[in-house]
Amino acid sequence: MTAVSQTAGPEMTLCGEAGLPYGLLGYVTDYANGVVDEATPVATLMRLLRESGATLADTLVAAVGRIDLDAIPPVGTQIAWD
């Protein structure tokens, strides 16, 4: 998958290098700066965020329901990396 992220790029890279499981859930609100000539108006961004709330909640509920809680080590567990 290809995505432009202003906030999650470093975290995704570091977790991948360290072999840490990492999931990122994001949704598009507008084009990245420089992709289109004019920035998306703030009112449009706010409308898109309001409209996406139910979809985000449904996605989180479905994703959390798929987590195998028995496969998650307790907090503070030291993991030996190969």
Shape: flat
Query: Which percent range fits the helix content?
Result: 40-55%
How would you name the oligomeric state of the polypeptide chains in this document? single chain
Helix/strand/pairing category: mainly alpha
Could you give the order of the helices and strands? HH
Tell me the number of helical segments per DSSP (H or I, 4 or more residues long): 2
Radius of gyration: 17 Å
Largest sheet: none
Textual characterization of the structure:
The protein has a domain of 36 residues. It contains 2 helices and no strands. The protein is mainly α and 82 residues long.
SSE inventory with pairings:
Layout: H1 9-18, H2 42-64
Concise account of the structure shown:
The protein has 82 residues and is mainly alpha-helical. The protein has helices at residues 9-18, 42-64. It starts with 8 loop residues before the first helix and ends in an 18-residue tail after the last helix.
Question: Which tags fit this structure?
Answer:
mainly alpha, flat, 2 helices, 82 residues
